[in-house]
Amino acid sequence: MRRTTAWMFMFVCVAVAGCSKPESGHGSTTTTAPGAIAFPDSWPYPSADTGVTAAHGMVATDAPIATHVGATVLRNGGNAVDAAIATAFALAVVLPAAGNLGGGGFLVVHMGDGREAALDFRERAPGTATRDMYIGANGHADDRSITGPLAAGVPGSVAGLWEAHERFGSRPWAELVAPAIALAEQGFVVDSDFAGAIRGDSARLAHFPASAALFLPHGRVPLAGDRWRDPELAAVLRRISASGQKGFYTGRTAELIAAEMRRVHGIMTEKDLAAYQAKWRDPIEFTYRGHKVISMPPPSSGGLTLALVAHELARFDVRAAPWHSPREINRFAEAMRRGFAVRNGLLGDPDFVTIPTARLLSQQYADSLSKSIAEGHATPSASIHVGGGATAEKQQTTHFSVMDGQGGAAALTTTLNGGFGSAVVVPGTGLLLNDEMDDFAAEPGRPNMFGLVQGEANAIAPGKRMLSSMTPTIVLGDDGKPMLVTGAQGGPTIITTTYQIMSNVIDYDMNIGTAVSAPRLHHQHLPDSLYYERGGLTKATLDSLTAMGYATSPQSPTGDLGYAASILRRNGVVHGASDPRVHGSAEGY
Ligand code: DON
After folding, report:
1. pLDDT digits (tens, 9 = 90+) for 91-136
2. What share of the chain in percent tops pLDDT 70?
3. From ligand 1's centre to the CA of 544, what distance in Å?
4. By mean pLDDT, which of 94-103, 140-149, 228-237, 362-371 is the weakest?
5. Which residues line ligand 1 (CB under 6 A)?
6. Which of 291, 445, 508, 587 has the fewest CB atoms in 10 Å of its CB?
7. What ligand 1 atom has the least distance to the C-alpha of 418?
8. How far is Cα 66 from Cα 176, in angstroms, rounded to an integer?
9. CA of 502 to the centre of ligand 1 (A)
10. 397 is a catalytic site residue
11. Which neighbouring-strand residues pair with 13?
């Protein structure tokens, strides 16, 4: 096994004129009254959105049918993990672009009895994967990491849901898989999001006969209002229901996956499938303005980068600068820029690279980054070197949040990576394989054709997990119980979206509907550009940012900066919000 000590290569060099003086409020709750929050008139979503309220528990997802499945489990006495398992299986049927059996993800849990855990069910590179497997004849990586059989890592989702159930489940496994079986077998009426997603990827799906047969019946994209069925997926789910993890990773389903890989020159084998195990990891824990936060550790970069950004901003009294004022945006952009420089350069699978987690989580380390923030000025990313590069990713993943009535919560983010993953449906299974291999650095140190430039720490190796940005996160209230359950989809913007939801609620007292609807920002070190959602900043604010030296880049407000189905418990009431950028839902009891 190759093991790289990324830390050895780390150096931080920032060359800017002047540093700002730390303000009070370092890591503690501030007393400054928050200003009233008003979104610009040009912003399409309401600022007075209170979300859905309930007395006991809540599920919020990107797909209403899956939300209802999860909420029903809670109503029937299931805990947050039971509901998360049923919701994830339902998403594999009703949101096939992102929900999955053939992908992977991460789960962060705080149980009603206080137990906390982080579960890694990220895909792994197959056993014969090699560092340069996507390098073509011209010496550069090509698109085999994105479309087709070589793009797929060994799926982790079923093992993850099984493992979560083994440790925390309270309802029978088969009862939690049953709603997904019914949806796949009996079908459901598709909406415009479902049809639009297939339309968007129809050319890729048409390339593979089993994918075309499933997603383009009679050669056309399904229309909103059509009934959708996936009986072969129902059969796969039945085997999972009967035999758990083994029902997917061995036996008929594994045989079908491996046979298709042999037929189309993929490299995943039955041995790779049988060897897959989800892993419990120690959650990333840190304090944000007096609140304990738990999030996902590597191989996701999410929790560590979230903590870095939060700790960098701890030197400022955030609430002294009005929400989305140029001053606040300037500080936030600089914290993101530096956090991502570290993320892109140093992080990878902790089973393969040494990650100095304790050091990266220390306030001292964050201070060493943030002391170079010159207020009123953009620091050129070219002057910040932490040994790595930029990320740019395609769109599809799904995050959901669960809070039960027993003081428990689950935050789960799952993905095929790009929409519909590799676009390969395994014949006889109705299931899509992921294209998560593209999250590795296909060409370390150089941008591949999709803009990914990451370091050796995230190079491909057999059995290794590719670095992720998924950030399922739970924030505890003063009573030690879950207060906020959040996370997002959206590639690297997942991390910054998650931070903004947390800050909107904690620093600016927003209710959860407003916090999720609010316009968002993103910076990821490279490209050296401050992303904002079109209509989300006023012209005056954009002019101020330009004067500070920012190159600003407008993004679509319909999801370029992610979706973030979230739940907030405040004053004994549970509030849930799906993201208005997608047509999800929240449902409580
Ligand atoms: O693990 C990751 O960070 C990516 N595979 C997530 C991709 C994603 O969020 C795309 N969706 N919007």
Report:
1. 999 999 999 999 999 999 999 999 999 999 999 999 999 999 999 9
2. 90
3. 32
4. 140-149
5. 393, 395-397, 415, 417, 436, 439, 468-470, 489-491, 494
6. 445
7. 10
8. 12
9. 20
10. yes
11. 385
Q: Where residue 413 falls among pLDDT bands split at 50, 70, 90?
A: very high
pLDDT in tens, 24-50: 333 332 233 333 588 999 999 988 777
Please provide the DSSP assignment of 176-193 as one string. Answer: HHHHHHHHHHH-EE--HH
Tokens of 455: 């370091």
How many beta carbons lie within 10 A of that of residue 395, not counting itself? 19
- Point out the catalytic residue in the list 147, 269, 379, 397: 397
Whether 138 is covered by a domain: the verdict is no
Q: What is the pLDDT of residues 341-373, one digit of tens each?
A: 999 889 999 999 999 999 999 999 999 999 999
CA gap 427, 506 in Å, rounded: 48
The whole-number pLDDT of residue 449 equals 37
> Which CATH number characterizes residue 232's domain?
3.60.20.40
450 located within any domain: no
By the 8 A CB rule, do 117 and 81 touch?
A: no
Is 459 inside any structural domain? no
The Cα 414–Cα 488 span in angstroms is 10
CA of 397 to the centre of ligand 1 (A): 5
Report the separation in Å between the CA atom of 150 and the middle of ligand 1, taken as the mean of its atom positions.
18
Asked if the structure places residue 308 within a domain, the reply is: no
Scored b (16 or more CB within 10 A) or e, 195-227 reads: bebbbbbbebbeebebbbbbbbeeeebbeeeee
Range of the domain at 113: 1-30+52-122+155-302+390-434+466-589
Question: Ligand 1: which atom is nearest the Cα of residue 489?
Answer: 9
Q: How many domains does the chain have?
A: 1
